[in-house]
Amino acid sequence: MMNFKNPEDVEFSSFQGAQECNQASAFGGDFDSFGHSCFTHYGCPSEMSDRTGRGRGGATSSTSRIPRCAQSPRQIPVAHSPRSNYSFRPLFHERSSQEDDSVLTQQLWKLARKSGTLNLSNKALARVPERLYDINEADTESKAVNLEQLTIKEEDAWWNQVPLNNLDLSSNTLTHISPKIENLQSLTVLTLHDNALVKLPPEIGKLEKLMRLNVSHNKLSQLPREIYSLPELRHLNISYNGFTEIDPDISDLHMLEFLDGGHNNIQTLPGGIGFLVRLTALLLPYNHVKELPPDLVNMRSLQKIDLMQNDLTCLPEDMGLLRKLECLYLQHNDILELPDFEGNETLSELHASNNFIKTIPKAMCSNLPHLKILDLRDNKITELPDELCLLRNLNRLDVSNNTISVLPVTLSSLAHLISLQVEGNPIKMIRRDILQCGTTRILKTLHERALAKSKEEGGGSDGAFSLGGISVTRLRGGQADDGDMPGNFPDRYKLRHTRTLAVNLEELTEVPDQVFQIAKNEGVHVVDFARNQLSTLPNGLQHMRNLVTELVLSNNLIGYVPQFISQFTRITYLNLSNNLLSDLPKEFGVLNTLRELSIANNRFQFIPNCVYELQGLEILIASENHIKMLNVSGLQSMPRLSTLDLRNNDIDAVPPILGNLTNITHLELVGNPFRQPRHQILMKGTDAIMSYLRDRIPT
């Protein structure tokens, strides 16, 4: 029996009791009406004291652990306040199979049975719910319903349900996939990226309808051999894993069109890779590939090759056999020289920065007529050839951080060159302040020097001159005249050989009809009158309405587009940028073959309604205008639109429903006055912008 000698003892005892009560409350204790946690499964402290006293002598103790001045807690019978059977579970714990199974709710189950698609991404799954593997089987509930029930709710009948064809298990913590995956015979898309998989079951090879398999961002070092027997597989992504080689059996995937093996530790490519004749994209960045197999050039369908950040020292000499190649990425390798690329006429982008290249092959310049981007920064280049002027469609040339001392004046003949990067070179022929003014000022200086040199060499008054055997007419890359063509226009041979009518930097205000008639007779399908003084489309252009596929009229003074533009039934590319346009004719909407439209740097305050009628449009460049609002309903009517550039306009609000346009894969909105999304989100790219917008759609 405890006796308190003084008030301090009483105070200390009260404090100690309060501590015990608080500890009791943490493990399931009850609370009195004043919020005190003074009750445990033993009852209250006074009851415990009474029981203790009676146990020792049968008499009730006159002292208590609670001071007499304290208010007595409300008495609650023990039978009505038992201690809760609560087991402590930390926030981060190992998932049980029951928890994983509960993720596949009945609502998700029914939705998957109706649509054929099941999305279980980002559910923290440690195991695939066992029930999932039986989703294609008719369940007992649907079989047991009677005819009357089916009449009321026929969509739930088992014969109206769709087999699962799209399964997304990405962004979980899966370490393995059950062999029961073979039960999902109807799968065409299997997404397993961002998990912790160390191996895949061989039974995946039995999914004979599988067309897309994504196992990126896992811990795989090899694939089961059975996967290489999948007859319909077209898309394979094994990036961000631990692969050291690509299995030679990959050549058995005859239908494969896309292969991404980036960010691994791959050192060699199998010799049989050339049998992948349908492959259009080969992505192997951030590996340790030292040499390309000779049969790589047999993959004649390749359009994109990404070998950035590898250990390559050279390229196959017969790269020209890849006649459909459009983009080649070779940054950060050990390449010493470039091939001539003879035969790669469709190549539009060549990125070869951070290598050890010393020269630019002269033949390469004449073999790449459609090259738009040439990136050779951070190499060992000492001089630029005059033949660079043969790259007539070049938009961007980056030769910064080399050892170039002289810029050829022929660069000024590149009418489409909008970005020339030369910083980090010991250039002495042009003052530093001019170099710092940018591309336009540099080209103007080269232009003036070219004209001066032409006069010194006895060139004509039209500015024609010849450097290194290259004829340049008025800085446009044209040819000498013949008897049929007016002055300063390319001759018949040039038209027949290039199928291109290009006249740039001539300050033309009109074009004779005779020019278009001759171009039509020679089968020309590309017309380029950029950087002139045209106020509208030349009337003679109508002669070529059934031939023209590309029409470039940028950097003119065009204020309106005539209605006859609707007669161009084969046009796929139209560039009207840097003009004075504020609207387009309503007939413009019938150009169903148009794939890319550029109306940048004009005076548009809105995107014309006729643009929304272009069902085949894939790329819309409308930057540098005065567009004030986004017409999302109009954009929704363009099913193929994938690139939308609206930089530097006057848009003050971005509707959240824009995020639902999943067909848009490249969106540019920088330089507008809206507050949301913030600039930091815009800098993260299209995926971040669209996700941000979708999260703000009212529910």
Structural class: alpha/beta
Q: How much strand?
A: 5-15%
Mean pLDDT: 82
From the spread of the alpha carbons, the general shape counts as globular
Separate helix tally: 14
Query: Rounded to an integer, what's the Rg over CA atoms?
Result: 37 Å
Tell me roughly what share of residues is in helical segments.
10-25%
How is the main sheet built?
13 strands, parallel
Tell how many strands the DSSP assignment holds. Answer: 23
Q: What separation lies between the terminal Cα atoms?
A: 66 Å
Low-confidence stretches: 1-70, 78-86, 460-464, 473-483
In terms of quaternary structure, what is this?
A: single chain
In what order do the strands lie side by side in the largest sheet? 1-2-3-4-5-6-7-8-9-10-11-12-13
Characterization of the model:
This protein is α/β, with parallel strands linked by helices and 699 residues long. The chain contains 14 helices and 23 strands. The chain has a 13-stranded parallel β-sheet with strand order 1-2-3-4-5-6-7-8-9-10-11-12-13. The radius of gyration is 37 Å and the shape is globular. InterPro entries: Leu-rich_rpt, Leu-rich_rpt_typical-subtyp, LRR_dom_sf, LRR_domain-containing. This is Leucine-rich repeat-containing protein 40.
